[in-house]
């Protein structure tokens, strides 16, 4: 098991990132500039090594003017770092500020920052962003992250290992940069130096640059133009539409004791869509058309339970919840006979007096 990411990276070929033309130049750069032993030449570069190689390649191409990039097959993302490959002269730093340290990239850094890899924090973050984007493109081209990784020598597994090692290096350097950003903030608060180091490539600026480059799944969703959206279609109802729930459907069944024949039938000019009598009316099975129609599953369950109990009389019609439309008619017919306001004894006496009128004597 490799002890470090550098040891694990030496087991991966640089051809995962570089073409054959670039690989030849890269091997030359490793031998002449890095002075690596022959057994390590051709191994996969890290983010900072890849940045240094691209800067060296761009500088060499510009010097000899060979038209190396004239075919348009490659455009170095580190062309602007070509001048930073060599250690900068002291004049590259901000004059008059002896505390500002100068990194090898030529940018002045905050005095409280230790620059990893000889680059300022901003350049370090840029190296990792470009490097991880390139590895992600190669991994997608090889099939992406399938979630199943076996110990094999396939190109896909090599690419995933390279991407994984790059993530580890990024997490390590980013942690150092965020710690340095806290030190910078403490230094500024201690000496009241807010705005004094605004021209420096600080760790705070580097951390902000990285987190601004991170893309989340929620941010990658397609954005729709509100002007191209179709207008929503409205729904209109009649003015006399009642949206309150009415009487329970069981009260309209022909087998229900509450059902009144002919009370709810349609007008003669409408088509008869009646489904016939209930299938168990009068204890006899219904005919082919004698079926009940259920609007909800609760109606069907209530009907089935009532049939098992021996008839429709076992159904709870919800007397407390639903108003019986026939109660008013019954009350009108019973007016004058009995009154709930009178005592029961008075009602009995009235009944006896009425009965006396029908007694025949002799």
How are the elements arranged and paired?
Elements: H1 5-9, H2 20-32, H3 47-64, E1 101-102, E2 108-109, H4 121-141, H5 155-191, H6 203-213, H7 297-308, H8 327-333, H9 344-356
Antiparallel strand pairs: 1-2
Helix pairs in contact: 3-4, 4-5, 4-6, 5-6
Biased composition (Acidic residues): 316-362
Region (Disordered): 254-291, 310-362
Biased composition (Basic and acidic residues): 260-271
Q: Taking all residues together, what is the mean pLDDT?
A: 68
H/E element sequence: HHHEEHHHHHH
The total count of helices amounts to 9
What class would the helix/strand composition place it in?
Answer: mainly alpha
Distance between the termini: 128 Å
Q: Beta fraction of the residues?
A: under 5%
How helix-rich are the residues, as a percent range? 25-40%
Q: Could you name the ranges where pLDDT drops below 50 across 5 or more consecutive residues?
A: 66-75, 82-99, 276-290, 319-325, 352-360
Number of domains: 2
Strand order of the largest sheet: 1-2
Main pleated-sheet profile: 2 strands, antiparallel
> How many DSSP-defined strands?
2
Principal-axis shape equals: elongated
Short description:
Residues 316-362 have a biased composition (Acidic residues). The protein is mainly α and 362 residues long.
